[in-house]
Amino acid sequence: MSIGQAFLGLLESSPRHGYDLKRAYDERFGRTRPLPYGQVYATLSRLLKNGLVEVDGVEPGEGPERKRYAITSAGVTDVGRWLSQPEKPEPYLQSVLYTKVVLALLTDRPAADLLDTQTAEHLRLMRELTRRKAEGDLAEQLICDHALFHLEADLRWLELTAARLDELAREVRSHG
């Protein structure tokens, strides 16, 4: 996700200081990975330079002056355009998991063990997400559902690959 676009969307409702913007972002989008302050101010600096936000006010603080940022009309147009464009689906045609399986086969390592270990890790994470989903608000539930659906797809792939491992091993070795 574009942090800059998220900032523009958050600023559209009202001007905010950088720390308020960070808090709003972290509450809505960064629950498990809060933004570092440096990234907040680097992003605001870039948005300012590109004319998408402006300084709406400066207040003295206990240190550096506190700037309040507001979205510009160009920023409103930019975030509107971004929201109206579909995201490119990512098919993961060459995943890290596939690469590991092929390399395990090429180097005579136990690819089945790799698949079993990965399956166990996926199941562990799915249990954790299911717990978070049960305890969370609607936003957390939707975030967890998204992750769970992706993990379920990975699990189906892991099972299919395990079932075809002997065939894949023959094919990999014939090309290697």
Q: What is the residue-averaged pLDDT? A: 90
CATH superfamily of the largest domain: Winged helix-like DNA-binding domain superfamily/Winged helix DNA-binding domain
Amino-to-carboxy terminus distance? 38 Å
Number of helices: 8
Find the structural class using helix and strand composition: mainly alpha
Order of neighbouring strands in the sheet with most strands: 1-3-2
State the name of the first-level CATH class of the largest domain.
Mainly Alpha
Can you give keywords for this protein?
Tscrpt_reg_PadR_N, WH-like_DNA-bd_sf, Arc Repressor Mutant, subunit A, 8 helices, 3-stranded antiparallel sheet, PadR family transcriptional regulator, elongated, WH_DNA-bd_sf, 176 residues
Task: Please summarize what this structure is.
It is built from 8 helices and 3 strands; from the N terminus they run αβααββααααα.
